[in-house]
Structures are given as C-alpha cells and as structure tokens.
Amino acid sequence: MTGNIENFHSDERPLVSIGMPIYNKPERLREVLEHLFAQTYKKMEILISDNASENPEVEIICREFEKKYANLTYIRQKTNYGPFLNFQTVLKSARGKYFKWQADDDLIDSNFMEECVSFLEQNEDYVIACGEPRSASGDLVGDKRADFTQKSPISRVLATYTATSSRLISIYGVIRTDALKQMVWAPSLMTYGGDRQCLAVLAYLGKIAMLSSTTMFRYPGMSNVSYAPSFKLFYDRFIFAGNAMRTTLQQPVYRDMNFFYRLAFSILCALSVLYDSLTLFFLRPLIKKIFGKGKKVKKMLLRQLKKIIKPFEQQINKHDAELDYWRGLVAELTQGCKDESEKRKCLFDICHEITYPRYKNDLYLNPNSFSGQKILDLGCGPHGGIIGFENCEKYGVDALIDSYKTLGYPLDEHPIKYFNARSEALPFENCFFDCVICVNALDHVDDLNQTLREIARVVKIGGKFIGQHNFHEKPRVCEPHCLKHDDLISFLCKHGFECERVVFQCESLQDDRYYYSFEKKSDVSENP
C-alpha cells in the first residue's frame, strides 16, 4: 500500500498532533526530534510530556528545540505520575485531525507523515496508517502475514491478538484523533500489553494500513514507554488485568457487539497484560536461556491461538457475508424511496406481497394451517415469511435480528415475536411449539447436529417440522453444510422424527431444492 500525494496541496492539509511521552532517555532524543522536523509534511504540532526525568540532559535537549521551533511545546511534570497519565497528557492537548504517539527512541523516514496523512485522507475506512517496521540495519521485522485490513471488524480485533509484538508498532502510526476520543481510557490501556488493547479497539473502528512506501526504525534493547523504575509495576499488572476486562466491556465502540464477543475480548485483554508482564519480569530470562530469544515458543503459542480462533473467525465471516447480502437487498428494494418512512413501508409490504405468498405456496400451506397453534420460523431472516398465517402465535429466531433492525428492517411492526438467538441454543421451553418452519436455513447454521437436537426439544410430540432446503455440492461462506436430502432424513429420524413427505421441487445449475415434512413421534431423550 502507498498513499497517493498527487494534488495534495499544503493549504488544504489537516493539522497533525505528535505526542511524545518521554522519561529519562536522552541517548536518541535529539536524533528523534531532528527526524520529526525534517519531515516533508510541515503542518504539525509537537507535544512533549516529560515524566519528571532525573537525567538533566533530557530537559536541556527539549528546551533547546522548544526555543528553535514555535510548533513544539515542552511540558515537564513535577513528579512522575506513571505512563498512563503521561500518554494521556499529550493526547488531551492535541488539536489536530490526526494524532501520532512518538517514542523517544524510534526514527521515521522523512516522508512518513506525508505518506500516512495522504493515505488516510483518501481512505476513510482506515483508522491508522503506519510505515513498515524495520530494524536499525534496515531489515523488515515482525510477522509479514499480519493483516489488519479484513472487512470484518471482529476479525481485525482478533488479528491484533495473534500478531507478533513488532506488528503492534502501528499504534505509533498516524491515527484519526476522533477514533481515539471514542475510547474509554483506563490505566490498563497504557501498561504492559496495553498496546494490544488500544490497537484492538481502533481495529474495530477501522482498518489499519502498513505502508511499504515509508518506514519506522526500531532500536532493540530500549524501552518505548516512560515507566519509572519500580518493581511495584509487577503487582500493578494484576490490578490492570482486571481493569482491562472491565474497560473492554465498557468500550462504547463495542456496544453493538454480541456480549459473548465482548466477554471474549475482555478475557484476551486481561491475558495480554498478564502474559507480557510475566515474560518481562520472570519468564523472559528463562525463555532466552532455553530457547534463545523465545521465538520458537512464541510461534508455537501463536499457532495454537490461531487454531482456537479459526472457527470463531469463520462464524464472523459468515455473518458478515450474510449481512452484506441483506444490506445490498435493502438498497435494491428501497431504491427511489424518498424518506425513511417510505423505506420502512416498502420493506414491510414485501413481507405480505412476496415472502409470505412464497412460504404459503412452496410449503403447501394455507392461511389457517396453524390456527390455534404456536409456530416458529427458524432462521427467519428479516422479511417475515410467516406474517400472513392467521389465528396463531408467531415466533421468529435468527442470530442477526438486531443487525436487521440496524439495517432498517421494520421488524417491530411485524405481528411476530422475534428473538436474536442462535439455532443451537433456542430460548424456549421443551415442547413449546406445534410446528417449526425452516426455509433454506439449515445449511447456514454452525452446528447442524445441535440445531436438530434443539428443534426436537422445542417441538411437541405430534408436532411438525416442515421446510425447504437447497442442497449444494460445495461449502460456501454463508452455507458451510452440503447436506443431501437422504442425509437430512437420517439425521431427523435419529432425533425423534418420522418423515411424512419429501418433494423434489427444483433443479438448477447451482442447487437442488426439496420440500420436507416431518412429524415428531418421540422425545429426543429417547433417541440420543
């Protein structure tokens, strides 16, 4: 990736705030500041917060540059109040559209700011742009396969927890200031392991670019944050681990996320704090002694973590692909609608005019087929297929119900009780329904066996399971199961059902479509 700086005029350029939280390291400070003022991008403000450095050389260097450059502000704290407040001081003082934390021992190419700002100005779906991390000798460092550009926000968050630490350098890239201000800040975000936590929240808000057109140089053996030397930090890590979990659960940007995901992320945050702390204080010397730099152990742990995450990520990608389909359908169906109310009316009318008639005809039903009964549309989607059946209690279950509402579907206007739930864990009592309907949804579920057990559990003895299923040859992102009609019959019979009727309805180049009807003859407990 590279930013295109053509026609990027200086009078239109946004202000960039560069925040330097420093402590007691004058060795490379002068060189770092010289690199900043040598940038081809000039519309910058540089904010330095000195966390009460004991080495007088630090203040001497900063005062020298402050006198020379009007856009540099140097703040010396009276006492060392820890890294969190030091990082926060420079961020709170920032006035720019973009913000960059600058370590006091890292160097950047002269075109770093130019390339990063240009890229962000032209790519609104990206929240961070950073140069590639290289060693002092110029070698590319870190996991080259780390990718923070996935379409799924949750996939990007997971990538931050499986990336090697050198790829987390993007937290020192150019960041949209408004994204940083959406975060709930707590000390756990600026402690050991905090770079992952902070980057994870930003990754949820947007993609992260690593630009090959510019570079950030990393120097080994030098700390990048301004910690006062104190063994008490180890004890603090356990406190911060608990704070990390709470902070993640409280993040406003995660509010629309399923609670299970938020909880999983909060646990990962806590583990990252403890892992980085333990390796720093106790395990790192041992690992180095046995395994050199510990790369073998780290790679092994990352491989195992990726194996654990893979099914989780596949589920996320499946849901994202399904939402993309419905999002596109909304745009197509409501094209020409003048306002939101007209759009909602259009989507509501589709239920009565298209979806319900299709359910009724394809499933060989009539409006009074379920009179006096309770029926469930499993994997119902947003179009209310059972909306027209009369004199019955209608329920709908879909794992994306809340997302459908966000897309604009007027589900609250349907005479259907909708539940945002997975088919593998239906929120109903045993033997609750007289009939479960499932139209082209069984191949979308994550665990087919568990779904069938749940269907058998909630259907009454003598109740029905009817539906329509498309059988395809190869798995797809949204349809991971390639179940044939004879396999479906076998599965359902094992779960207490007896096949009443199977009808071959359609053959196409992509799928064969079947109608099926089953009656529950025995309880699922009798057919383990």
Gyration radius from CA atoms, angstroms: 29 Å
Categorize the overall geometry. elongated
CATH topology of the largest domain, which one?
Spore Coat Polysaccharide Biosynthesis Protein SpsA, Chain A
CATH architecture of the largest domain: Alpha-Beta Complex
- Distinct helical segment count: 14
Mean pLDDT: 78
The main β sheet shows up as: 8 strands, mixed
H/E element sequence? EHEHEHEEHEHEHHEHHHHEEHEEHEHEE
Query: Which structural class do the helices and strands define?
Result: alpha/beta
Helix content: 40-55%
Number of domains: 2
Structure explained in plain terms:
With 528 residues, the protein is α/β, with parallel strands linked by helices. It has two domains: 11-316, Spore Coat Polysaccharide Biosynthesis Protein SpsA, Chain A (Alpha-Beta Complex); 355-526, Vaccinia Virus protein VP39 (Rossmann fold, 3-Layer(aba) Sandwich), CATH 3.40.50. 40% of the residues lie in helices and 20% in strands. The chain contains 14 helices and 15 strands. It has helices at 29-37, 56-68, 82-92, 112-122, 153-162, 177-180, 194-205, 232-250, 259-291, 295-333, 340-362, 401-407, 448-458, 485-494, and strands spanning 16-22, 44-50, 72-76, 98-101, 107-108, 126-135, 174-176, 207-218, 374-378, 393-398, 417-420, 433-439, 459-471, 497-507, 512-520. The strands form two sheets. An eight-stranded mixed β-sheet has the order 3-2-1-4-7-6-8-5, sandwiched between helices. Strand 14 (497-507) and strand 15 form a beta hairpin. Helix 8 (232-250) packs antiparallel against helix 9. Residues 1-10, 221-230 and 279-284 have low confidence and may be disordered.
